[in-house]
């Protein structure tokens, strides 16, 4: 989860403050109401979505993944349709959190508001658990033992049974509803999909935040992702402390935009939205039941780490 503040006069909304995006002296970083460092994303155009070649390259990455995970499904016709066509988008300037929201910051929100997450209300949650060589299995708990304080369940092999030593890890098991509530408390808003994507890839249409090469080129790891038998070649079986992969930084200095933890954006989902989406400050479809997550997570492979990739789930959904 990541938050943003608009810097345009007319869009105060729930932002902590608003300033003229045409000013030449905007600071490169600011501190939000919640104490989080925020990075300026400047006004201007960027390339959003994927080209046909990008989709071909994503399919090639997917086929490579199948070499060590035969159950992987690769579908060129349908998997990348919602990323196309690639198109120019103009965005006003805005600030976005430099790091994903941590367990420590979410704890402060809960303590100050008494907020109860969707996982805690329902007593049901899903966790993805390493189950073999390059494989993960979805495990659903219906006894209330999985929540933001116990992302893998309170009894999972002693791993992630608590967040007590993981305060600087990104918060997990948080729904869209929970993320939106946090943003309101912090005087911010969830970024739109377009804002998130520009913050992740810059203006030049690059595939990943760091460029167009795989996240492990040259033996240097650029993201926390599903690399190795149990994801451990990047040094972490599950999530990592925010900012642990400086080589994966985006062109604007935003960290962990690929891997580590899925990130909610404000937009609803429509597979055909790009066919007629607005050029200036698009905010997604006006209707629809599903919401978009971006950035992939600790278990995902390169084709899902691409900045243009998106997934769509129900707003109450939450996972580790």
List the strand order in the largest sheet: 1-6-3-2
Output the CATH class name. Answer: Alpha Beta
Approximately how much beta-strand content do the residues carry? 15-25%
> How do the SSEs run, as a string of H and E?
EEEEHHEEHHEEHHEEHE
Total DSSP E strands: 11
CATH architecture: Alpha-Beta Complex
Supply the number of structural domains.
1
Rg from Cα: 19 Å
Molecular shape: globular
Structure explained in plain terms:
The protein is of the alpha+beta class and 320 residues long. The chain has one domain: paralog of FGE (formylglycine-generating enzyme), CATH 3.90.1580.10. It contains seven helices and eleven strands. It has helices at residues 52-66, 76-79, 103-113, 118-122, 176-186, 193-201, 302-305; strands spanning 4-6, 29-31, 37-41, 44-48, 87-91, 94-97, 125-132, 135-141, 263-268, 291-294, 311-313. The strands form four sheets. Strands 1-6-3-2 form a four-stranded antiparallel β-sheet. The protein starts with a strand and ends in a 7-residue tail after the last strand. The model is unreliable at 6-19 (pLDDT under 50).
